[in-house]
Each structure stands twice: as C-alpha cells, then as structure tokens.
Amino acid sequence: MAVDLTRALLLIVGPGPGIAVGDVRGRRGGGLEIEVALSGRPCCGGCGGPVWAHGASGVRLADLPAFGRPTRLVWRKRRWLCPQGSCSVRTFTDQEPRIAPPRGRMTARAARWATRRAGAGRAITEIAAELGTGWHTAMAAVHRWGRALLDADVSRVDGVTALGLDEVLMFRRGPFRDKQWGTTVVDARRGKLLDIVAGRSAQGATRWIQGRTSGWRRRVRWAVMDLSGPYRRAFGDALPKATQVADPFHVVKLANSTIDEVRRRVQNDTTGGRGTKHDPLYRIRRLLLMAHERVTERGEAKLRGLLAAGDPQGEVRDAWHAKETLRTTYRIGDHQLALEALDELARDLQDDTYSPELNRLGRTLHAWRTQIANWHRSRVTNGPTEAANNSAKLIKRVSFGVTNYDHYRIRVLLYAGKPDWTLLDTLTPRQNAKSRFKLP
Ligand SMILES: [Zn+2]
How far, in Å, is the centroid of ligand 1 from the Cα of 22? Predict the structure, then answer.
C-alpha cells in the first residue's frame, strides 16, 4: 500500500529527473507529509570543483492537496562545502526552482495554482483554506508570483493609442477608515486595465506615463479623463501631444450631480429643512437623473406632476433641462457643430437668471469645452475604465481585508488586467524580488 501511494504521489507531485520522493506520512488532523530530496551531487558554483557533504535540514512547504488532504512537502535540503581554499564559495544548500524558489514557504506548483485562483477572483482566505495555510502565506505567494508574472509580461501595456485615467477608491484604512484612492490607467480603446497608481494626484500618473518609452508615448493619440485638474495636468506634462478628451460618462455625471444639488437646496427651502421621503422632489430624485428616453409615460407624468408641486421657481426643471440638452450634444455627429452647441449651452447657463449651481456648471463646461467636444473626434470613452473600476470593486469584495496598495494592485491586475497566463509556468520569481513584504 505504501509503495503504491508513493507511486501515485510521484504522478501528482511530478518531481521529474533529479528529484527523489521519499517517505509519505500521515499527519495529525488528516494531512499528508511527503518527503523529497534532490539526487546526485552538485558541483561548486564558484570554482566548478567537487564538494563535500555538510549536513542537511528539512524545509516544510505548503503543497497542493493530495487525495483531497492538505499536503506538506518536506524538502530535505542538503548543505555542501567547497574544500578549495581559494574559492569564494564556502557553503551552499540545494536549490531547485521546480520544487520552490529560494526562501519560498510554498511549492512552486502550489504558488502557481494560488496565483491562478486569485486571478479568477477567489478570496485569499478561500485559497489559504484550500491549501491548509494561513492567509499571510497565501497572500505572500500570490503577491510574489503575481508580481513576477506582471513584470515578465512586458507586452501587456503595449500598443496603446487612447490612454485613460480615472480615480478609484481602493480601500479604507486606519482607525478612522480613511479612504485610500488610486488612479486606474486604462487602454481606453481596447478596454483594458493597464495599471493602478497609488493616489489620485497628477504626480503618480505623470510618473507612470513618463516611465514608458518615448516610442510608447508617441503612439498615444488620445488622453481620456474625467473633469479633474490633476489628470489634465498629468496628461499636459507627460503627453503634451496627445489630444485630451473628457469622458462623456463623467460629463453627464457632473450635470446629474448639479441636479441633485439644486434639488436638495430647493427641497430644503420649500420644506424648511424637514425633508422626508414623501417630499415631491425626493420622490422623483431617480427619475430626474434617468436618461429622458428611458423614462416611461407614467414616469413622465409623475415627473411633471411632482415638479409642479415641489419646484415653484422651476429651478430643478432648469437643471434637468441643462442635463438633457448636454446629453443631446452627444448625438451631434459633427465635431464643430457639437462644439457650437456646447458653447451655447455653457453661455446660457452662466446667465444670472439661472441658479448659482447652473452658473457653475456653465463655467465648468466652458473651461472643458475643448476636451468635451473632442469626444466627437475620438469616440473613445472611459467606459472601459468604468468596467475596470467595476472589476476593482468586485476585487474589493473578494479581497476583504486587503489594506495594502501593493497587494491590491497585484490582485486587481491579475483579475482584470488580462495578463498572459502562459508565462506563469515558465517563470520563477527572482530571489531578491523587491518587496517590502515577507516572502512566502
Ligand atoms: Zn568552489
């Protein structure tokens, strides 16, 4: 029975030439322990001469479950001594990346498996439970191997012609649950998440873009963003020749938040601050934000009726009209005509017969008129960025408890960054991978 088990394990472990499988033991709690060792005698890495045996020690590595039982590989690592007095090498231990990279606490195949699972959006706690290890061991393996994969996949960010920047809430941290923001860097043409930069200032995004080759930057024709100063600055500094485009989604979103502001103020004024869910304006808050063509006849009647009841000065109605007029400019096929329509709207909204909120919207539209109208030339949106952000949100759900930017970045890119997974089987993480975290 023991012999058969060992043979079966050979197939599962698949150690290959030069690796010998030894004893298989049951562990308390139902797990298995498999002993492996390298066979054959190495030469000295310094002088190439013969070496003397100098003891051995067992290294326990988390491995893939065998026969449905959590499994540990116990690698009997031999120590060797070079007898040559003139050689720079004194002693060294067995190294075999097919089993595990240096200082690894998990076998290479278990670490690859964990990394793939993380890429499929599985929670680290779940992966750790399946391997019978702790969260930190699993996270460290995913981080180390995932990072090696992303570093090796150099063509992942190639060929970008439309670059998008967008802010994303990564996670909350600290006793006051402070929001930690990041910036997603996206291929807006192909809808691919390229990277996540810590923070949402111009600096981080600028540095990322400047980290590309000049050839890469020359190819970027469109620079897509929300209506934020920092990203405009980042593009202006790092991609001065790219044409800036304001993402339609964010432009309409700004008009919608203006409706919300006006509605809350008017609601407050008319009800004396005693706002309840029965307020006419509160009851139509969603209908106001909905695209007009999607509002049903019944919704339309409700909208008109409750506006008449709760909006005596017509301020909310004006804000709604501004939003719908803005949306209409996106249906204009011609860039120049769209720009003229936008200019007209921006000018109108700044008229003092309108509310201060609409005046401000008018000023913003004017300040961004070029970028907004450029959409009609580029037809690229950060819609793909939004998709990437939604992926990031999903990751946030499955990676509950991750409060570390590096871990977050690796996990989101493995999940939503479409890395070339075939590279994972061929690579071994470098020994001194730059990481502030304990290696697996
Ligand atoms: Zn030597």
Answer: 29
